[in-house]
Amino acid sequence: MTRAYLIRIRNFVILVLLQILIFSNIHLYGYATAYLYLLFLLKLPRHTTRNELLLWGFLTGFIVDIFGNTPGINTAAATFVAFARNYILASFTKKDEADDYIPAASTIGSSGYIGYSLTCIIIFYVALYLLELFTINYPVTLLISVTASSLLTELFILVIECFNRK
């Protein structure tokens, strides 16, 4: 039990540091920014309680907001994804699946994992950019930003998933 928590904390620190030091500084054409720290929320075990998910979502978003000088935008979006994660995961898995797995392409299938991760990522970016723009007067900009950022983040997550296959 403690080994699992130590691994979880290690993954948390690595992904948040990568986000703060590298990925927050990459903005492709002013539209696409990869938020790789979402992988931490996506890879939490299926049996993680809702309160624990909300706490991890809040904590990851809050730390990224502190170092990114964004006033609570990542916190709100990451907490929202953490809230919706179990519902999204349930819609991409079989009903007879065991309750103690970690979402991955090897456990829920490649198409299920891509659907699950992409849905969570799109929800995150819609919330993030709506809070950032605070208006829907620019639907084309919103659509381009959500699409480009979601695809970029999904690409990075799938590359990491390919390296983590056992």
Portion in strands: under 5%
N-end to C-end Cα span: 21 Å
Q: Could you say how many structural domains there are in total?
A: 1
List low-pLDDT spans: none
Estimate the mean pLDDT confidence: 89
What multimeric state do the chains show? single chain
Largest sheet: none
Helix content: over 70%
Supply Rg: 15 Å
Q: Counting H and I runs of at least 4 residues, what is the number of helices?
A: 7
Q: Which shape, going by the Cα principal axes? A: globular
Estimated structural class: mainly alpha
The beta-strand count equals: 0
Helix-strand sequence: HHHHHHH
Would you kindly provide a written description of the structure presented here, covering whatever features stand out?
By secondary structure, the chain is mostly helical. Helix 3 runs antiparallel to helix 4 and helix 6 runs antiparallel to helix 7. It has one domain. The chain is built from seven helices and no strands. The longest helix is centred in the last third of the chain and has 26 residues. It starts with a helix and ends with a helix. The chain is globular, with a radius of gyration of 15 Å.
